[in-house]
Design a protein that fits this description.
Elements (H helix, E strand, L loop, with lengths): L1 H11 L6 H17 L8 H19 L4 H10 L42 H17 L10
The structure holds zinc ion.
């Protein structure tokens, strides 16, 4: 769910004044979103391309030092370990971000254990959040340090 991590954290970044605080909040936001029961996309290259595009949109709209951009970066960064060979469980390695362990990733809903947030809903929410982030966040109005 890297696309929602980017869009939702970019929108949430507007709540902060300092890029470093926004980045830390983005890391926390990543953990919260990982807990949500969700389907994960298997097209990692396409997802990576979308995330770079979204980060570029946020950075060029809000500013590269804006809280929106840095909250989105904090939201994206933990998932880098999902594609690194030296944190690949299939090779006997472990992942370090707490919500990347099976125990905490995509928690089941009591009474609806099969429920997973669909890719369509994730995309719709991400698009709405990204639109909110880049339309409400102009460089002259953004929290910049
Ligand atoms: Zn994650």
């Amino acid at each position: 769910m890297l696309v929602p991590h980017t869009g939702i954290n970019a929108a949430a970044g507007r709540l902060f004044k300092r890029p470093l605080v926004a980045f830390a909040a983005g890391l926390a936001g990543h953990a919260l979103l990982d807990l949500v029961p969700h389907k994960d996309i298997s097209a990692h290259k396409a997802e990576g391309f979308m995330v770079l595009l979204m980060l570029g949109l946020v950075g060029s709209s809000c500013g590269w030092r804006s809280t929106a951009f840095w909250c989105a970066m904090g939201g994206v960064l933990p998932d880098v370990e999902q594609v690194l060979p030296w944190t690949d469980p299939a090779r006997g390695r472990r992942r370090y971000f707490p919500t990347h362990s099976r125990r905490f990733h995509s928690l089941p809903v009591p009474g609806a254990r099969e429920y997973r947030t669909s890719l369509f809903l994730q995309s719709a929410v991400s698009l709405a959040a990204l639109t909110m982030a880049i339309t409400g966040c102009r460089p002259d109005r953004c929290g910049r340090s």
